[in-house]
C-alpha cells in the first residue's frame, strides 16, 4: 500500500471521528437540562471534533500553505472557545434558566451576595 | 442605587508593581514575535516579504491597540511544558468522550455544582491560562474570575456529592501547579509547593451542604 493511500485512510478516520464528536455535541445541546450544562457540550466535544476534522483535512491536503491556515484555525479555536463559553455562561448566570435544583453547591451566589452587601455598605456610608 | 445581581463583579485592581523598562521591552518583543508568526502562518509561506510585512502590521497594531501589561515573570520550562500539553490533550479527549456519553445515555440528567477555587499564584497570566485550560478539561467550565483575590468560579458537570466537589477542587489546583511548573518563575513555583492546600475564601466557610 502506498503512503498516499495510508494517509488518505488516516484522514478519513480523523474526519469521521471529528464528525461523530460534533454530532454528539449537537445531541448534548438538545438533551442537557440547562444552559450551563449545554455550554459544556459547546466547549469540549465540539473543539476536539473540529481539531480532528482539521487533522483529517491536513492529512488529505498535504500542502504547506493549507496546513498553516489549519494550524491557525486550531489555535484560535482553542483560545476562543472557553472565552465564548464563559461569556455566555456569565451573562446567563443569575437567571431562572439555570436549574438550581440540579446544583450540588453554588459558591458563586455567596460571592455575589457578599459583593452586593459591600456595595450596599458603600452606598450607606 | 441598588446593586444589581446581574452585573459581574467589578475587577478591583490588586496592587501590582509597575513593570520595569526591560520587562516592557520583553513584553513588546514577545507580542511582535507572536503577531509576525500569525501573519506568516496566514500567508502560508516563509519569505522575507512576509516577515517584513508582518513586522509592519505588528508595529501598527501594537501602536493602535496597545496590549494591557501582562507580567510574565518566569521562563518556559520545556519538560514540564511537554507534560502539561500531553496531560491537556488526554484531558480534552476524556472530556469530549465524557460529554458525548452523557448526551447519549438515555434517561440521565447530569447534576452539577458551582465551586470557587482560589488560585495560589494571583497573576493575570496564570488566571487566564488556568481558566482557558479548565474549560477544555473534563467536567469544568469557567463562569467567573475574581481578579482581586485570584479566585475562579467553576461550573462542574457530573458531580453528585460534596466529596466529589472537593476532589474536583484539588484537581483544579493540580492543573494550576502544572501550568506554573511549565511557565512560572522560581518564586511562583515555591509558593505553589508551600501552600499545598490553600484555605477557602472566608465567606465560603460554613456554606450549607
Q: Can you describe what's shown?
A:
Chain A: The chain crosses the membrane at residues 6-30, 42-61, 67-89. Chain A: This is Multicomponent Na+:H+ antiporter subunit G. The complex is a heterodimer of chains A (125) and B (209). In chain A, 82% of the residues lie in helices and 3% in strands. With 125 residues, chain A is mainly α. Chain A has one domain (3-93). Chain A is elongated, with a radius of gyration of 21 Å. Chain B has 209 residues and is mainly α. In chain B, helix 1 packs across helix 2 (48-64) and helix 4 packs across helix 5. Chain B has helices at 21-43, 48-64, 78-104, 124-136, 162-183, 186-194; strands spanning 112-118, 140-146, 151-157. Chain B has two domains: 21-64; 78-204, no CATH class. Chain B has a three-stranded antiparallel beta sheet, covered by helices on one side. Chains A and B meet through helix 1, helix 2, helix 3, helix 4 and strand 1 of A and helix 1, helix 3, strand 1, helix 4 and strand 2 of B.
Overview features:
heterodimer, A: 125 residues, mainly alpha, 5 helices, 82% helix, 3% strand, elongated, B: 209 residues, 2 domains, three-stranded antiparallel β-sheet, 3 strands, 53% helix, disordered N terminus, disordered C terminus
* Mean pLDDT reading of chain A: 81
Overall shape of chain B: globular
Task: Return Rg of chain B in Å.
Answer: 20 Å
Terminal residue distance of chain A: 80 Å
**Proportion of helical residues of chain B:** 40-55%
Low-confidence stretches of chain A: none
- Note the overall shape of chain A: elongated
Series of H and E elements of chain B = HHHEHEEHH
